[in-house]
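Priority: medium. Attachment 1 of 2:
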């Protein structure tokens, strides 16, 4: 039997994860009081009621009972039965934004600001997060991205390493992305903007891709960048990093950066030990240069 404890920061996507797991065939119960978990499992695995896949959503709404979750997990660790723990996380800025958009109240705020509730919740969840089997940072994920990651873990049985990589193209004229971890400048490559029949196309068009990749420097850049990233990824994973944003920039974010970001995405997509997506931040912005 597959048994998953789904927990994490309020607003990080636990409800979405539970709905997705239900679609994947899990019998899902949300906000079950911790003292009732053992009794629930006893009933769920008894004759005639045995479920192959169960997911329990548990969070700080449980109140003081939530603190006993660690003791329950410790008891299971000593036995033959051990559940997986899925922890949903997001950065503080994203959580605050989501609460403002939905106009919901954080379960720990009382009459205080959302930030205070988030800070208190992180302290309460620190122990559980450390023992989590899977940590997914949803700060940059759409619902479909989260679903894809859950399918990798619970359907594809992938060796998930809790790292989600975003490859982001951008234009320097619009500023370097604030949340980037690694920035690479590809303005050393010839600019398709100055070819009249190419200036209005983007790096998603074959003509631009062919123009950029016709230069040996583009291939050499990708080879060196790929080697460095493959070196960095296992080290980031071992240090517990959950999100990695790799930004590739040209002048306007429409031609060279898009092409190189697409090519890097192709190279990294063969590795299923981490989540991966691509974004083109400035590709459709009205600009005068590429």
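Attachment 2 of 2:
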């Amino acid at each position: 039997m597959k048994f998953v404890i789904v927990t994490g920061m309020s607003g990080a996507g636990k409800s979405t994860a539970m709905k997705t797991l239900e679609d994947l065939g899990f019998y899902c119960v949300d906000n079950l009081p911790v003292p009732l978990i053992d009794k629930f499992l006893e009933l769920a695995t008894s004759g005639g009621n045995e479920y192959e896949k169960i997911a329990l959503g548990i969070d700080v709404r449980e109140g003081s009972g939530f603190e006993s979750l660690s003791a329950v997990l410790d008891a299971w660790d000593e036995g033959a039965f051990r559940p997986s723990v899925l922890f949903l996380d997001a950065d503080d800025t994203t959580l605050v934004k989501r609460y403002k958009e939905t106009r919901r109240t954080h379960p720990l705020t009382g009459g205080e600001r959302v930030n205070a509730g988030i800070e208190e919740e992180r302290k309460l969840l620190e122990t559980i997060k450390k023992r989590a089997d899977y940590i997914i940072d949803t700060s940059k994920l759409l619902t479909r991205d989260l679903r894809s990651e859950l399918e990798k873990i619970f359907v594809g049985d992938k060796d998930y390493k809790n790292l989600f990589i975003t490859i982001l193209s951008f234009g320097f004229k619009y500023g370097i992305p604030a949340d980037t971890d690694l920035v690479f400048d590809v303005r050393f490559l010839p600019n398709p903007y100055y070819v009249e029949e190419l200036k209005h196309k983007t790096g998603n068009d074959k003509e631009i891709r062919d123009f950029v990749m016709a230069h040996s420097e583009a291939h050499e850049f990708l080879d060196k960048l790929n080697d460095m990233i493959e070196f960095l990824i296992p080290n980031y994973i071992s240090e517990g990093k959950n999100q990695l944003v790799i930004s590739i920039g040209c002048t306007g974010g429409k031609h060279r950066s898009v092409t190189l970001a697409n090519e890097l995405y192709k190279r990294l997509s063969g590795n299923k030990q981490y989540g991966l997506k691509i974004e083109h931040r400035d590709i459709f912005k009205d600009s005068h240069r590429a």
